[in-house]
Specification:
This protein is α/β, with parallel strands linked by helices. It has helices spanning 54-61, 90-100, 116-126, 131-144, 160-172, 190-207, 218-223, 246-251, and strands at residues 10-23, 26-39, 43-47, 69-74, 83-84, 101-104, 178-182, 210-214, 226-231, 234-237.
């Protein structure tokens, strides 16, 4: 897959990020001095063994959790001085998250009592977007993921692949600049996974959307223009200075999913 030029503008930069958790008197270091640069329109996958810190990195980037220390710098639309989102007050952080970042998880987390259209409208309604506009935005993204014919169906009436397509439409309804996906096909069969992968690649190209995808799916990783490999809370390759593809890592004799704590 094509990758943006190296001189494409930086969208987000992580600097010397640490994240620790406490379990009683015990301190668990999950992220240890992570540095990462993602450019506008770039499609990146993060691989590594369970316990490497992949999901924690994604959660911090998405402001679902805050790092113990370090910076997460987002470039404003149109340029200017980057914003360290770790310093934003909670109300501003919530607004930033809603308008700038889309999320897709292994499980779709759709609200079962609402239709596909209503689920896809939720982010815009939370942002107090007028209902008509929220509906138009949701319908456009549902069409983009091939779900125009299922607008009125509830999640229980949809297949697993259809549920994940609705979840992707919901993630993109606010036209975010960055899509974060944590094992987006981990709960799907092989054929449906391939369809969702193809959809993500197409959306990246059509919307010039930056994507950061955590996966254990080697077939997906091999297709990605850039691979970030993590182990023990650190980035081993692909931090933005020496981006590698999965085939290059394999050719070099590296195990793309590396040894690491479970």
């Amino acid at each position: 897959m094509p990758s943006p030029a190296k001189d494409a503008p930086v969208l987000v930069q992580v600097r010397d990020m640490y994240k620790s958790f406490r379990h009683g008197s015990r301190k668990l270091d999950v992220l240890r001095g992570v540095n990462l640069t993602v450019r506008a329109g770039e499609m990146v996958t993060i691989i590594g063994a369970s316990g490497a810190g992949k999901s924690t990195l994604l959660h911090c980037l998405g402001t679902l959790d805050l790092p113990s220390s370090g910076e997460i710098l987002f470039q404003p639309v149109g340029g200017g001085t980057p914003t360290d989102i770790t310093r934003l007050p909670p109300p501003d952080l919530a607004e930033f998250r809603n308008r700038t970042i889309g999320f897709v998880f292994q499980f779709h987390h759709l609200l079962p009592e609402f239709s596909a259209l209503e689920n896809a409208m939720m982010p815009a309604l939370i942002a107090r977007t007028p209902t008509r506009q929220a509906r138009e935005q949701a319908e456009e993204m549902l069409a983009a993921v091939g779900m125009s014919h299922r607008l009125a169906h509830r999640p229980g009436e949809l297949s697993g692949g259809e549920q994940q397509r609705v979840a992707i439409a919901r993630a993109l309804a606010m036209r975010p600049r960055l899509l974060l996906a944590d094992e987006p096909t981990g709960n799907l069969d092989t054929r449906t996974s391939a369809e969702v992968h193809e959809l993500l690649f197409r959306l990246n190209q059509e919307h010039d959307l930056s994507m950061l995808i955590v996966t254990h799916n080697m077939e997906l990783a091999q297709q990605m223009p850039r691979v970030v490999r993590m182990a023990d809370g650190r980035i081993l390759e692909g931090d933005g200075q020496d981006a590698e593809t999965a085939p290059q890592l394999a050719a070099a004799g590296a195990d793309p999913f590396g040894a690491g704590p479970e």
